[in-house]
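Page 37, continued from 36.
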């Protein structure tokens, strides 16, 4: 039996190409498996928007708040459970009763801003947010976390606020989707605010659009 000392170059190219193609198929399979979309919620689904004054119709007329506008875009029944001044601990305390009363299919958690403004323990804020997400899922609901911008003089001066880092950590730990940029981007624009901290009607309208767009990417909204 004879062995060729100089294999056919074209044969080698073909062999390598086939190997690379096989690797690409495997990588594509892993990528597709890791990008699971949530099932869309049908019209009439109950959604609980749990938050503080950034969720409540603070400084705007009833019906101009982003939860109401989100409901109009989706056909969902969105319950605005935002209370001005609420800390994460206060919202956590009232969440069980809200879950029992409304039995939502989805809970949007948007809290932590007042904790940061009052310089409360970040570790406790993280624990409270995690507990809220746990309670939501234990009730049978899906959950999404919305990041609030971290207080920043430079961010306020240069209209460039960014989400506090701990929101990404909580979302990763609890394996829930995170809407990171909607609130920071709106609150970075002075034309979209009624005061230094809160969105005006135009700000709420844009928030409704941004949150709706993110929920579409996640899969919950059509």
């Amino acid at each position: 039996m004879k062995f060729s000392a100089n294999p056919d170059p074209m044969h080698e190219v073909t062999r390598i190409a086939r190997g690379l193609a096989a690797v690409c198929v495997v990588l594509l399979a892993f990528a597709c498996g890791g990008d699971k979309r949530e099932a869309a919620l049908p019209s009439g689904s109950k959604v609980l928007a749990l938050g503080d004054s950034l969720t409540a119709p603070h400084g705007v007329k009833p019906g101009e708040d982003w939860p109401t506008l989100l409901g109009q875009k989706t056909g969902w029944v969105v319950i605005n459970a935002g209370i001005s001044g609420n800390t994460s601990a206060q919202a956590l305390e009232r969440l069980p009763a809200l879950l029992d009363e409304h039995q939502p299919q989805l809970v949007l958690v948007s809290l932590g801003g007042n904790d940061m403004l009052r310089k409360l323990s970040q570790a406790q804020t993280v624990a409270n947010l995690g507990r809220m997400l746990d309670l939501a899922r234990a009730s049978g609901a899906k959950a999404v976390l919305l990041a609030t911008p971290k207080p920043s003089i430079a961010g306020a001066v240069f209209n460039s606020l960014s989400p506090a880092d701990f929101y990404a950590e909580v979302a990763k730990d609890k394996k829930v989707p995170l809407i990171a940029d909607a609130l920071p981007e709106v609150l970075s624009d002075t034309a979209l605010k009624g005061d230094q901290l809160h969105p005006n009607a135009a700000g709420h309208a844009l928030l409704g659009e941004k949150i709706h767009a993110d929920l579409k990417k996640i899969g919950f909204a059509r």
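Strands lie at 46-51, 77-82, 106-110, 142-146, 178-179. Flag for discussion at group meeting. Confidence is low (pLDDT under 50) at residues 1-7, 19-34.
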